[in-house]
Amino acid sequence: MLEKTIFELSSSGREGHALPACDVPVLPLDTLVPAAALRGDLAGLPQVSEIDTVRHFVRLSTLNHHVDKGFYPLGSCTMKYNPKVNEDACRLPGFTGLHPLQDEASCQGALALMHGLGEALREVAGHDAITLQPVAGAHGELTALMMVGAYFRKRGEKRDTILIPDSAHGTNPASATIAGFRSVTIKSNGEGLLDPADLRAHISGQVACVMLTNPNTLGLFERNIVEIARIAHDAGALLYMDGANLNAMMGIVRPGDMGIDLMHFNLHKTFSTPHGGGGPGAGGVSCTAALAPFLPSPVVAERMVDVGSNARAPQYYLDHDRPDSIGRVHSFFGNFLVMVRAYTYIRMMGGRGLRDASVNAIISANYVMRALENDYDLPYKTHCKHECVLSGLRFRDQGVKTLDIAKRLLDYGFHAPTIYFPMIVPEAIMIEPTETESQETLDEFIKTMKRIAQEIKETPELVKTAPHNTPIGRLDDVKAVKQPNLRYGGVCN
Ligand SMILES: *Cc1c(COP(=O)(O)O)cnc(C)c1O
């Protein structure tokens, strides 16, 4: 049954609130607000009781899938559970009541938090310096590539090319283009990895940067990373890591130790902030000392000051005195409350906990991959890291596409995996279980995937026309784009 809109639930005179009796003199509104600014008619707000309002929004909250409702194996997106303590912390009035133009002395706590988060992330990365300004992974990529540009300008070198493997996320070449570079694609080899020999064939004095995702989007660790770094560095180029897959390596290996010069974090993925649907993110960038001068301004810095009685204490400030900086990439400080969530998560987990998260994410992905490798195609057979990529290619004969499998999963109460990405795998099904799911949940998902594979053999029409149990059935994607109708029962013109 379709949920009515709150306006359709409205009934004249019904109230959802009770205000105390007015204890100040009542004045006509136009003595307080200029008549020209007053509306002529009533606002037409819905008149609904409190219980009907609560029920309406509770029902709405269950129509869509979300991570608090069920398993969400959306590959590359790290849809781990978002601990509620994060939400508690970021709702503290000391944080929500801050004004971005407050002077430094009055927001030492917030600056200390940003500094502490930066230090923790630097430790995970094995890097010397960091910015938290960028507000998404893609924004971090752009920031980093602008830094790469500034680095070579400072050195008086003209380099205009970025090398990117064909398994990369689409944001990589997009960021390269926006930052003013030309991107050249390198093909993955038969193992799904970047081939050092191929990299050698493409590297030259024109190359500013090699952009690598590790583990890559196939969920495979680029095990030639040390050689790849050497090839890039020998040619005077830098090595960038798209850090979206950091959930596979926290506390196990540090990007800085692998020769990565700079990288971005997706705090909303790895460090547990609710995301998806365009929600706020944070995409900090860490780098080596050589690149630190080019980081966006200001950076949050710490100095020790005298606090009397021979004692010293840290003081935090915004360092604007950075002549080689690429400048601001966002107003004020970036998405501060996302940082509060990430900081809370890191402090709750501790270093050991972060490592355990990565280890368990890897075990979960391999568990799912091995359980399904006979029912679906597995293009790359080796162990995966935190996610695995299967394919629905074998169902082509039945006329069933990966999209149909994804839709059928919705009928069983699961969010669909990522599909058709990475683009080098036809009919790709990219599954990232994350560390927060129990074995029982994974088993239930595996059972359902097997059941769908069986359904395709026996009743393919059932799968091709799915979903059947969701509030809305199969949508016409093309029509939805060409002729969007955002109002239920409304007219589109
Ligand atoms: C998510 C993701 C990005 C982009 O990050 P956003 O925060 O969505 O901008 C880049 N690369 C990979 C591999 C990703 O999974």
Describe the protein:
This protein is α/β, with parallel strands linked by helices and 493 residues long. The chain has two domains: 84-348, Type I PLP-dependent aspartate aminotransferase-like (Major domain) (Aspartate Aminotransferase, domain 2); 358-482, Alpha-Beta Complex (Aspartate Aminotransferase, domain 1). 34% of the residues lie in helices and 12% in strands. The protein has 14 helices and twelve strands. It has helices at 50-63, 84-90, 93-96, 108-125, 137-154, 171-178, 196-202, 225-234, 267-270, 336-372, 402-411, 439-458, 460-464, 477-482; strands spanning 129-131, 161-165, 182-186, 207-213, 238-242, 262-264, 285-287, 299-306, 312-319, 388-391, 418-419, 428-431. A seven-stranded mixed beta sheet has the order 1-7-6-5-4-2-3, sandwiched between helices. It has a three-stranded antiparallel beta sheet with strand order 10-12-11, covered by helices on one side. Strands 8-9 form a two-stranded antiparallel sheet. Helix 5 (137-154) packs across helix 6. The protein is globular, with a radius of gyration of 26 Å. The chain starts with 49 loop residues before the first helix and ends in an 11-residue tail after the last helix. 39% of the residues are buried. The mean pLDDT is 95.
